[in-house]
Amino acid sequence: MGPFPTQLHFGPIHLYLYGMGLGLAATVAYYYAKARLEKAHVRTAQFWLFSTGIILAGLVGARLAHLATNWSFYNHHPGQWFALWNGGLASFGGIALAIPVGILMQRRLWPSLSSLAFLDRLIPALLLGWALGRFLGPQFMYAGGGHLTHQWFGFYYHGQVGKRVPVPILQGLEDTAIWLGALGLEVRSRRVGLVSGVALVLWGLVRSADEYFLLGQNSHSGSIGVQIAGVILSLVGVALLLRSRKN
Predict the structure, then answer these.
(1) Which domain, by its residues, includes 196?
(2) Over the Cα atoms of the chain, what is R_g?
(3) Contact 8, 15 (CB under 8 A)
(4) Which of 56, 65, 67 is nearest to 102 (CA)?
């Protein structure tokens, strides 16, 4: 089996599957998060504004982080700075910028709502969106696979020689499992902040482990940055657990 396609051609029109997949994942996460907030009797008239803000912040942060950790290449290829169709979105860079933007917007749009309660409603939707994004995004991008493998589960990816560990699929399964676990915890516990804290601890540790064992190289600054960022995200989850309280 050859590499997965990276784009569709309709005459002069080129549709990149990577971007289409991420767009679909973001759409699902948006409507799912909105439904969860409405179920909790939260006004969602301005949710589109909140979502637009964090999506834009996430894209900008993810691209800036990718440029920074691969500056030796982009310093000599400025024409590639905005070539998102070739991949190049560092997820933790997006999170790093989206978090402060999201906190500021949440406090402005829903000042009377507890931040912990808001996160408990939002994070499961983000996990589902992230899982779909893994299945539908990097799986179809240039050089989307992990380390070389000769095992039966290996896939071929454009821009990479030989069969590769299908990291996007594995991460999609991991994120789906964390999402289902968060929903189960939500049913069994009334403790505000517990769902968010546990989800962030698990997601950060898993993402860091994926980078170390399946994707990164220890000498690569971007890989080390992802591993550190995963640990930091887990520590944020621990902080939320310490702040969690009975509803």
Answers:
(1) 7-246
(2) 19
(3) yes
(4) 56
Looking at the whole model, is its pTM more than 0.90? no
* Total domains, the chain: 1
Query: Is residue 165, in this structure, part of any structural domain at all?
Result: yes
SS3 (DSSP) at 155: strand
Is residue 1 domain-resident? no
In sequence order, what DSSP letters do the residues of 88-124 get, joined into one string? ---HHHHHHHHHHHHHHHHHHH-TTS-HHHHHHHHHH
- Rounded CA-CA distance 199/196 in Å is 5
Q: How far apart are CA 115 and CA 58, in angstroms?
A: 19
247 C-beta neighbours (distance < 10 Å), count: 13
Q: pLDDT digit of tens for each residue in the chain (247 aa)?
A: 678 788 888 888 878 888 889 899 999 999 999 999 999 999 999 999 999 999 999 888 888 887 877 777 777 777 777 776 666 677 778 888 888 899 899 999 999 999 999 999 999 999 999 999 999 988 888 788 888 899 999 999 988 889 999 999 999 999 999 999 999 999 999 899 999 999 999 999 999 999 888 886 544 666 787 888 899 999 999 999 999 988 7
DSSP track, 199-245:
HHHHHHHHHHHHIIIII--TT-HHHHHHHHHHHHHHHHHHHHHHH-E
Whether residue 81 is contained in a domain is answered as yes
Asked whether residue 62 is domain-assigned, the answer is yes
Alpha carbons 112 and 130: distance in angstroms, whole number: 28
